[in-house]
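Case study 2.
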Amino acid sequence: MPFVRIDALGADGERLDALGRAVHDALVETIGFPPDDRFQVLTSHDGTNSTLRYDDYPGVHRDDGIVYVAITMRSGRTPGQKRALYRRIAELAQEYAGTEPRNVFVTVTENESIDWSFGHGEAQYAPGAPPAVT
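Prediction:
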């Protein structure tokens, strides 16, 4: 955990990989997730069959370099940790993928331990969960 979805317009595999690494490295650095805790869905939209919509709200001018990052994780992070996460994602997206920070849109959705199953039909994080199956 966390679960990350990244959507970018016209991104090739190399750019998608770079964006995924940027988000993952930022999560490891700012929130303290383990380096091997990576669950990501990376999607490129071609602008014809699938596309991304955006405007300039709230005064941020975006262009076709837009990247949407949706992160789902358990609740408990401080506002300071989240601000550091957003800043670091934007920095690393620029460094790794050449994405301008103004084009990095991030949302975090928090939930509880019972809201996760990592396989075997079990809620591994839930209180009273049986031992993990290996």
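Strands lie at 3-9, 39-45, 67-74, 104-111.
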